[in-house]
Design goal:
heterodimer; A: 113 residues; mainly beta; 11 strands; 0% helix; B: 113 residues; six-stranded mixed β-sheet
Amino acid sequence: GENVEQHPSTLSVQEGDSAVIKCTYSDSASNYFPWYKQELGKGPQLIIDIRSNVGEKKDQRIAVTLNKTAKHFSLHITETQPEDSAVYFCAAKAGAGSYQLTFGKGTKLSVIP
Amino acid sequence: EAEVAQSPRYKITEKSQAVAFWCDPISGHATLYWYRQILGQGPELLVQFQDESVVDDSQLPKDRFSAERLKGVDSTLKIQPAELGDSAMYLCASSLMGLRIAFFGQGTRLTVV
């Protein structure tokens, strides 16, 4: 089955700096890669996603890049703010016939004011 | 704003007792998921419903876990008997016909003592 590795497990940045979280996946048939933000006491919330036919996607301060050859994808947050502090999860979904998301173990991001 | 409702938020139960969780998905969402999230890890799919039918329960420990969605709307996840290793957050999510999961519910935090 699919295996998703996520790094780093914790990340501290100064407010205004950029943060990058990286994930690798094992199943070359995976074709959908969402990123979730989980705040304390809440369920995960989708913040951005990318499909395998696209190399990069941006939404305001958040961007995701995908390298299908290397089987890795990354989340980039620019101009970080204290409210970006949370746990971020990457996930991958295998190809046709599979609905199952496989999640990474998460990255705890702390933005220091 | 539409949301996935779950209850209870917290549950403490003794080992070998039965416990049940309830989920009400976003109105109109045909696909419903139950995920388990162990502290410090990403969510893992337990069971997926399409309307009232189970699509994927390959990761559900069927000797003690059961799930139902009788009328294709709300759903119940049951554990009987509970074991210490079942302590985790149980998350429910829903989506339109197996497409992107935008929101998870706030989850039920289960502690087995």
